[in-house]
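Aim 2 progress update. The chain analyzed this quarter is reproduced below.
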Amino acid sequence: MRKIFIALLGFFAILFAINLPVSATEEFPDVGPDYWSYDAIMYFKDKNVLSGYPDGYYRPDQEVTRAEFATIVTKALGLRNLDEITFTEYKDIDENHWAYYDVMLGSYYDLIHGTPDKMFYPQNNITRLEVIMVIMKALSIKEITEQEALEQLSVYKDAADVPYWATLTTGKAQQLGLIVLLPGYEDYILPHKYATRGELAVWLYGMLQRAAIQPSEKLEPEPPKGPRKAEGYIIKNVIFDDNYAIIPAGTKLPLGVMDCWYTKTAKEGQQILTRALVNFVSEDNTLLIPIGSEMTGTIDKVSVGRTLIKNSQMIYRTENLIDSNTRQPVAPFKAVGEMTPKVREFTHNPILQKIGFKGFKGHNFYTHKSQQVDFILLEEVKIDLNDNLKIIQ
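Predicted structure tokens:
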């Protein structure tokens, strides 16, 4: 089965098959287009943030050290100016270490830290929880309560593995859609698992998407004025009218469905939550709908597969954009998305696959947490670019 691109998409199951600006340069032999984080890896390869080894391989399953992560995250954020920073003293890393200056940059910008006894441990592998702490430090975010954080994390089977001191930050990361779920482990945070080079690209892409909207004050002391620029999923045919942008009805928007559903048990009328897994931008990269924006709605229709007669189907309908803090509707957002079962790979012959799939009908399917579904706007969306991207009713 073709693996899904997960971000901060949800990544990031964060970014899936969304249209990231992918480089046309040579690929890594061990990271093909079917690899779950291929798009993010190729994006950062094109930006010279991530690179392969001398043998040309990327090694996506290799774990990442704290020194390597410091270098990658400072490159991704474009933090290369050493002239005005204050250097931090660590006992176990000095100017002779290959990552010294990136560690200094990361420490100055409050992204990475050592221990109270001034140790950095550059050779230690970095955990997924540590990655969460770093990417959230790159952002300016509104705090949430402990109860809200616990509610956010309750969807995971290993939520109890998140240390108490990290609950608020991890809960906020979940609220913003910035926890990268690994294929096959969509119900687990895996906070103490070491992060790999493959998933790291998805974490960083989600961070950059959100940092384009709300960077930390130290990264960008003065917020940008007027329309903001970002990279993400490009929406064509956007109409600009002074300080407003209009996304016309009929536009396709890939959204993540944030709950698991099975066609045999799902019921019409059940509530759903969808989320923008990346920034939605115009062709000139004007930010329209930021990553993490959430819409509520319902299951509009569900059909169970019937043997030799028809396959199953699920149709979702969104109704309202909600405020990420109050969880209350703030503007109408009417769109419809449809899912049908995928062709199963029971043979290496693609023609026989399709014949067998269509001939033996009756397939039912699951939707997984953060799974991408293409929604079609039923009504135009008008956005005030000068008022925090407010959608005008």
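The longest strand covers residues 329-339. Residues 139 and 215 are 4 Å apart (CA to CA). These observations will guide the mutagenesis experiments scheduled for the next reporting period.
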